[in-house]
């Protein structure tokens, strides 16, 4: 199964016509897989749902969730969520979901089960084999595509197409073979947390608007203070490390995958990616703005550095902002002063003129009756997904999930949270999040213009594509070798699967910075830009 956190369209979002007989991705393959999964479900028997959450009475691992079910009615309905870490958030989501019983066109007996991310993959796999999946589950877009390929999920294209205001990356996240295999629920982007008090102490005015600011203002901060770091990003083998580097890569005109004429290419070790990794390494090797011991600083350690006042700015998921202010109880006394001094800023603008930031989040995927515990039918599942993503229902739990939860389309920006902020969060924090949302990117989806069944597993096995940069930072690995090793592992993984009707050849040389995008050449030469660290000169 895929181990990630977190389309028939090209890189510019234009539809791609693959045809009904197009290789391993054909509709015939989908239907054959669906028949096989149905046969497995039929022979596996009806197994109870397991997990450490709030389940219905019909589940082996449930504790009797809201709207419990006796497992006998055709309209019994079960859905799974991973939102069990923040009690107020979980309660808000469950209350909103419970409201579907009154909103549905049919008599629905709804049960919510909370399962943690660290166990959901084995639960999904067991559910496919034992016909014990929920009707709807939270997941990532890559997972929905994988389940669609295997015949366990049903497309939600008609529901998705009712709206035309999705953010760009959201159009591609669950798009595969001309179908949308899920409906996006929420997104979460990384933003820069800036301690204005430390910036003032360093004599630095304004914000980090560009990559040049990261360098120049970062150096000023290090020269005028005793801080451990300036504008920081994790450096250990950590998912957030790779996520931030992926965003840098798109800002520099690079990508991790290409897709053209029904053929895939792996670009993780291409010249653009080499530049990006050398640019990140320059924070330590060339500009001296990274914290000491960078190779051991993961996202948690980076968050702790910010909380303790040892770095001026940290580009991280907004769990950091949540740790400073609890929207339910008011200001956390331990961080009251820091919360007052903290401002959120978008990712500084890169060479391509965009402020791309990595996107996490979740979608709603709908499982077929052949693999679900209860035969609720497609219309009820689609109705639930549509209900849970309407602004008026999102308003039931977005305020207690803010600023982490974010809209996935512009129409959702009209919910109360953004028009009449009812929380203790500064309005500017929410405004920054909305500013960042349309510029979000995600791993390989953005570069290839589509999702595929193999992306989820690769994103997990590469720790979010952080294995190369962490090897450079922590083990002084040769950048070209580290990138080539990561990329060849990706190629090998794809070749060993049955998703792609092609063989990806391993790389044994290169790349050269001469082939990097034109937009970054001034950074390589130092012509009007801060020159990057280049061990190959």
UniProtKB/TrEMBL annotation:
Provide the transmembrane region boundaries: none
Please indicate which superkingdom the organism of origin belongs to.
Answer: Archaea
**PANTHER family documented for this protein:** ARABINOSE-BINDING PROTEIN-RELATED (PTHR43649), DIACETYLCHITOBIOSE BINDING PROTEIN DASA (PTHR43649:SF12)
User: One matching Pfam family, short form?
Assistant: SBP_bac_1
Q: Where is the composition biased (Gly residues)?
A: 51-71
InterPro entries listed in its UniProt record = Bact_solute-bd_prot1 (IPR050490), SBP (IPR006059), TAT_signal (IPR006311)
Compositional bias annotation for Acidic residues: 1-23
User: According to the UniProt record, where is the region Disordered?
Assistant: 1-29, 51-74, 503-537
Protein known as = Multiple sugar transport system substrate-binding protein
What's in the keyword line of the UniProt record? Sugar transport, Transport
Organism listed in the record: Halomicrobium zhouii
């Amino acid at each position: 199964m895929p181990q990630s956190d977190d389309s028939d369209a090209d890189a510019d979002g234009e539809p791609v016509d693959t045809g009904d007989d197009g290789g391993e991705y054909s509709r015939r393959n989908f239907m054959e897989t669906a028949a096989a999964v149905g046969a497995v479900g039929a022979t596996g028997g009806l197994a109870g749902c397991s997990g450490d959450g709030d389940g219905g009475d019909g589940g082996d691992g449930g504790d009797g969730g809201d709207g419990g079910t006796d497992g006998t009615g055709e309209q019994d309905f079960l859905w799974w969520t991973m939102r069990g870490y923040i009690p107020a958030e979980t309660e808000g989501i469950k209350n909103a979901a419970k409201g579907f019983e009154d909103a549905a066109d049919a008599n629905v007996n709804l049960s919510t089960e909370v399962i943690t991310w660290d166990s959901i993959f084995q639960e999904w796999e067991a559910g496919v084999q034992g016909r014990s999946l929920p009707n709807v589950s939270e997941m990532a877009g890559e997972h929905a595509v994988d389940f669609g390929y295997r015949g366990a999920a049903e497309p939600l294209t008609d529901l998705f197409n009712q709206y035309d205001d999705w953010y760009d990356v959201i159009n591609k996240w669950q798009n595969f073979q001309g179908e949308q295999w899920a409906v996006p629920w929420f997104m979460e982007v990384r933003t820069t947390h800036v301690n204005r008090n430390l910036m003032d102490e360093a004599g630095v005015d304004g914000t980090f608007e560009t990559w040049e600011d990261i360098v120049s203002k970062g150096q000023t901060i290090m020269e005028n203070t005793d801080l451990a770091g300036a504008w920081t990003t994790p450096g250990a083998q950590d998912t957030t490390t790779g996520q931030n580097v992926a965003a840098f890569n798109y800002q520099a005109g690079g990508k991790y995958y290409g897709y053209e004429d029904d053929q895939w290419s792996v670009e993780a070790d291409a010249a653009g990616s080499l530049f990006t990794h050398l640019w990140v390494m320059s924070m330590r090797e060339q500009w001296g703005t990274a914290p000491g011991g960078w190779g051991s600083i993961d996202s948690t350690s980076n968050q702790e550095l910010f909380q303790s006042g040892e770095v001026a700015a940290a580009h991280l998921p907004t769990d950091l902002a949540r740790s400073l202010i609890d929207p339910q109880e008011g200001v956390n006394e331990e961080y009251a002063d820091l919360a007052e001094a903290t401002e959120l800023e978008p990712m500084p603008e890169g060479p391509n003129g965009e402020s791309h930031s990595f996107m996490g989040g979740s979608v709603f995927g709908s499982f077929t009756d052949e693999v679900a515990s209860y035969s609720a039918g497609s219309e009820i599942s689609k109705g639930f997904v549509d209900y849970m993503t309407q602004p008026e229902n999102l308003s039931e739990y977005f305020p207690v999930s803010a600023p982490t939860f974010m809209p996935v389309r512009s129409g959702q920006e009209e919910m109360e949270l953004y028009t009449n902020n009812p929380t203790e969060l500064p309005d500017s924090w929410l405004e920054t999040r909305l500013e960042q949302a349309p510029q979000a990117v995600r791993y390989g989806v953005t570069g290839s213009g589509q999702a595929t069944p193999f992306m989820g597993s690769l994103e997990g096995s590469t720790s979010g594509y952080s294995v190369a940069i962490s090897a450079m930072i922590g083990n002084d690995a040769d950048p070209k070798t580290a990138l080539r090793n990561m990329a060849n592992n990706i190629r090998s993984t794809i070749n060993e699967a049955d998703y792609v009707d092609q063989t990806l050849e391993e790389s044994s040389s290169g790349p050269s910075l001469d082939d990097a995008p034109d937009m970054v050449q001034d950074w390589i030469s130092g012509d009007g830009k801060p020159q990057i660290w280049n061990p190959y000169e």
